Amino acid sequence: MTPVQRVQVTDEAAKVIERLRRKHGDLMFHQSGGCCDGSSPMCFKAGTFRIGANDVFLGKIADCPFYMSRSQYEYWKHTQLTIDVTKGRGASFSLEIPLGVRFIIRSRLFTAEERKKLNPG
Predict the structure, then answer these.
(1) Residue 35: what pLDDT?
(2) Bridge partners of 45?
(3) What InterPro entries has UniProt attached to this entry (predicted)?
(4) What is the pLDDT of residue 64?
(5) Rounded to whole angstroms, how far apart are CA atoms 40 and 83?
(6) Are the C-beta atoms of 115 and 5 separated by less than 8 Å?
(7) Tens of pLDDT along 14-48?
(8) Are 42 and 32 in contact (CB under 8 A)?
(9) Is 81 within 8 Å of 13 (Cβ atoms)?
(10) What is the pLDDT of residues 93-111, one digit of tens each?
(11) What is the C-alpha to C-alpha distance for residues 2 and 38, in angstroms, rounded to an integer?
């Protein structure tokens, strides 16, 4: 049985990630769940954001690890997250901001069949 992925990425977002990787090296993503841009996925150079015991690893997007705060995960654990990109400048420290774009999340509820195939989390 092939596991269902909790997080995935659109082709357009993957292109932005590759552009950032060429400039910054290895990357990682985190979503804290705060208000405003804190609820947006944030892209960091690997190792510059400290992951703690209250962060949940959801999987990889474009070969980059994606983490979410445990409190935020409790709200989103029933949904599949798709990381996308849109024009516009977010108010955060995420690496894509100088490019005039920002990462966003699109979500949908897992079906009953998909829930049976989810990776543990």
Answers:
(1) 57
(2) 27
(3) DUF779 (IPR008497)
(4) 98
(5) 10
(6) no
(7) 999 999 999 999 999 999 866 555 578 999 999 99
(8) yes
(9) no
(10) 899 999 999 999 999 999 9
(11) 32
Task: Note whether residue 18 is domain-resident.
Answer: yes
* DSSP assignment of 56-98: EEEEEETTEEEEEEHHHHHHHTTEEEEEEEEES--SS--TTGG
Residue 84 sits in a domain of what CATH number?
A: 2.60.300
User: How many structural domains does the chain have?
Assistant: 1
Backbone angles phi, psi at 23, to 5 degrees: -85, -40
Sole residue written with tokens 């949908």 = 108
Q: Is residue 2 part of a domain?
A: no
Structural domain range at position 112: 7-116
d(CA 94, CA 79): 23
Upper half-sphere CA count for residue 23 (Cβ side, 13 Å) = 12
**What is this structure's pTM?**
0.91
pLDDT digits (tens, 9 = 90+) for 48-79: 999 999 999 999 999 999 999 999 999 999 99
- Displacement of CA 91 from its chain's centroid (Å): 17
